[in-house]
Amino acid sequence: MRTWLVLFRKEWLELLRSYRLIWLPISFLVLGVSQPITAYFLPDILASSGGLPEDVVRSIPLPNASEVMAGSLQQFGTIGLLLLALSSMGAVSNERASGTAAMILVKPVSYLSFITAKWASILAISWLSFAAGYVASWYYTVTLFGSVGGPSVIAGLLYFGLWLSFVGTLALLFSSLLSSPAAAAFGSLALAALLQVAASSLPFEQPWNPGRLSQLAAGGLDAALSDGGSAWLTVAVTATAIAAALYLAARSLQGHSRS
Amino acid sequence: MENISDSQLLSLLIPVIVAELVLMVTALVVLVRAERTRGPKYMWALIILLGNLLGSIAFFIFGRRSD
Predict the structure, then answer these.
(1) pLDDT tens-place string over residues A52-90
(2) CA–CA gap between residue A181 and residue B29 (Å, rounded)
(3) Domain residue spans in chain A?
(4) Based on the structure, what is the number of domains in chain B?
(5) Is B12 an 8 Å CB contact of chain A?
(6) How far is residue A247's CA from residue A105's CA, in Å, rounded to a whole number?
(7) Engineering a disulfide at A168: which of A36, A59, A122, B55 sits with its beta carbon 3.0 to 4.6 angstroms away?
(8) Which of A26, A86, A94 sits opposite B23 (nearest CB)?
(9) ipTM of the complex
(10) Do B19 and A37 touch (CB under 8 A)?
(11) Is B7 within a domain?
């Protein structure tokens, strides 16, 4: 446990040194706030940019508060996910390339604790950034559009946080499987997109699909987006997948350093 | 939905602008203090200044060299 804490502190320092602890939360903050603000000003923007007749502009309905919140979740799901994957794409492969990993792993440190320390730091930065952006978006939505139900907002936070954790874990896994950071980012994003598309477009029920998580988060806020399925299996499968991915990442690191 | 006065709107917009400025200034400070960057420094300065939020983010992701 003590060695794990040492490793985690190293990862935390790395977050600070790479300035991720500054730019990721700020990016998420601006991302989360921009959705309610643009939704609020959309009629004005359309009116001043011209081209549309005035009665058309007036007939565009303002979205309600929960739709705006679901909209900012969508922003986090695309741009936010991209930022997180890009920021953690080199987590293992860079250290292997620079020799840091070898230097640490000659000491009596298990591969699994090396990986889980990295994983914990990725999770910490993801949850921190997402929570900052989400709470800011909530505050702006409530101020500009009116109140949103508290329980559904918190459920949205938890489901979507789990989804981000899942994709972050995928990035870590691919980073230890592949030597190229770009391939790791692409692999994790592609797999995440694939799961998400499968969850929303295949005609049969997929209560096991982690790609449903973002839908669950948005569906709690905006009933029109809900697919009405139960969440427990999704959460359980995602947690199992995360654990399996961590084990696999540690095994792959072991294989690489033996050869 | 109640109408919102101009001063209230301003107080909502200012935090966003401050957050973007903080990010931009941090990126510029990091750029100036960095020994080496991927590509010329003046190019990154332009990207950060003109590219707003995305420019700063791009610098943090792609511009820095860790060694």
Answers:
(1) 777 776 777 778 888 889 899 989 999 999 999 998 888
(2) 26
(3) 2-258
(4) 1
(5) yes
(6) 16
(7) A122
(8) A26
(9) 0.88
(10) no
(11) no
